[in-house]
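Hi there,

I know you've been waiting on this one. I reran it after we fixed the sequence typo, so this is the corrected version. Both the input and the resulting structure follow.
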Amino acid sequence: MKVLIGRVISIKMAKTATVEVERLVAHPIYKKRMKKTRNFHIHDEESKAKLGDIVKFAAGRPISKLKRWHLVSIEASTGVIKTKADKEKSLPSKVKTKSKPKKRK
């Protein structure tokens, strides 16, 4: 039985959570370490997982077209994380600078 650990990135579906698993892979030629991510749909019967939690999940029988994983345990409860849209809103807006006057012909 394969077991993975990842971060919950979506809980919008009933009894389902989307989990992102991040791993480091060496580039085949340059040998630089790169982050690769993959998303998994996991079955969460009691809807215990919250956005941003670190969860452990295992392979199981197919439950639906995309769900082949089930929740084993919640490793760390980090609470709610901000989405990309929320992060952009919290950043300070760009300061408008006066543009140079255009030259007339």
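Quick highlight: Strands lie at 3-10, 16-26, 33-43, 54-59, 67-76.

Best,
R. S.
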